[in-house]
Design brief:
It comes from Denitromonas iodatirespirans. This is UPF0145 protein I8J34_11770. Belongs to the UPF0145 family. The protein is an alpha+beta fold and 106 residues long. Helices cover 36% and strands 40% of the residues. The protein has two helices and four strands, in the order E-E-H-H-E-E. The chain has helices at 31-43, 48-72; strands spanning 2-3, 14-28, 76-87, 93-105. A four-stranded mixed β-sheet has the order 1-3-4-2. The protein is elongated.
Length: 106
């Protein structure tokens, strides 16, 4: 599945537009990651565990969008937008949303 944030794919002709597809992933931060992130905030540095969890959630969202596009008969998604949102009463959840237009290129 070709995926792009641009509205077109260079060297490819879009022959059909099949509709908007989405993928979502909601992840929760556990207490151990929170503890180590708090230490990182004090001493400096990157929060590796959070970065890996965020990368995993983003990949899940992209995979879900690709599966939705494939079900429509698409072989590409264009105009992809990735959005991040903090959820929950204590901001303990992060939602990653991927959306774009499923197309057939030839």
């Amino acid at each position: 599945m070709l995926m792009s944030t641009t509205p077109t794919l260079e060297g490819q002709t879009i022959t059909r537009y099949l509709g908007v597809v989405n993928g979502e992933a909601i992840i929760g931060a556990n207490i151990f990651k929170d503890m180590f992130a708090a230490v990182r905030n004090v001493v400096g540095g990157r929060a590796g565990a959070y970065e890996r969890t965020l990368a995993d959630a983003r990949q899940i969202a992209f995979d879900e969008a690709a599966e939705a596009a494939a079900r429509l008969g698409a072989n590409a998604i264009v105009g992809i937008d990735v959005d991040y949102e903090v959820l929950g009463a204590d901001n303990g959840m992060l939602m990653v949303c991927v959306s774009g237009t499923a197309v057939v290129v030839g």
